Amino acid sequence: MKKIRARLTGSYRDDARYPAALVNVTNHCNLSCSHCFVFRDGNPNQASRSIRDGMRDDEILETLRALRDRHGIVSMLWMGGEPLLKPHLLERGLRLFSRNTVTTNGTVPLVDFGPGALYVVSLDGPEDLNDRIRGAGVFRRVIRTLSRIPERFASPVQVQAVVTRRNQHRLEELVEAVRGTRAGWMTFSFYVPRAGDAGDDAWPTNQERAAAVREVMRLGREHPGFIRNSTRSLELMLPEHCKRVTDACPAKRHVLPLYMEHDRFATPFCCYGNDVDCDRCGAWVVFHLAAKLARPSTQSQ
Prior knowledge:
By secondary structure, this protein is an alpha/beta fold. The protein has helices at residues 57-71, 87-93, 127-134, 138-147, 171-179, 206-222, 231-235, 242-247, 250-254, 284-294; strands at 6-7, 20-24, 75-79, 99-104, 117-122, 157-163, 185-190, 255-261, 264-266.
């Protein structure tokens, strides 16, 4: 029997079924984004001295294959760090799962993995706001990457922005900038605060967040087909519904998070790590799943 280099703790069980998983294939990244949830204190996120150290590619793939078979994983979200720093691992790993999504900061050249791999490229506002979070010059580098996607590039490319209290009034500027590139569409997630987070990105209450949610609803009406948050998922984020969703978090029941911890994977409290304020969670995956599970499969998502 192959060795599974993963330690499942908390609410995650060795005998449970998880149709989806996310995996941090490296803790190395070429950026230092200030709001990155992976690199918050208290999460398994320590980078080895060299990207070649730590878990070998064969060990990672062997473990993912074993977890796939044990838990029934169909869909994998490839994360980091920056996963495109390990393109050869991705090329092999994508063959293990029926559905694959690769998150990237967009500053590393995209690899055409074929139509079975969806790219999700991160941008968090117009140039000044994005670069305050992600570093000087990053916005233009990402726009250049998106603008130079070859015509025959088979992997679809989506842009996802994290809505925060700082950028909520300038989302339309970002949409217009992305529409001028070759990206296929956009989605919006909402900032997931730490416990007690009173920083500039976090809304003190969900009532105060509601205006930002309604702005994304408006953008969806203005840009049908390009903004792909479902109406129902956004409705569930409004104050009258959101607590019911987060109290029974569908992501914790359906998604297995695998963070890299030295020579093995570990499961944090949830997909967003060990230090989260569940009551103020705005994660796309949580409300997308809630909307999907609440609707008949014949209805549009």
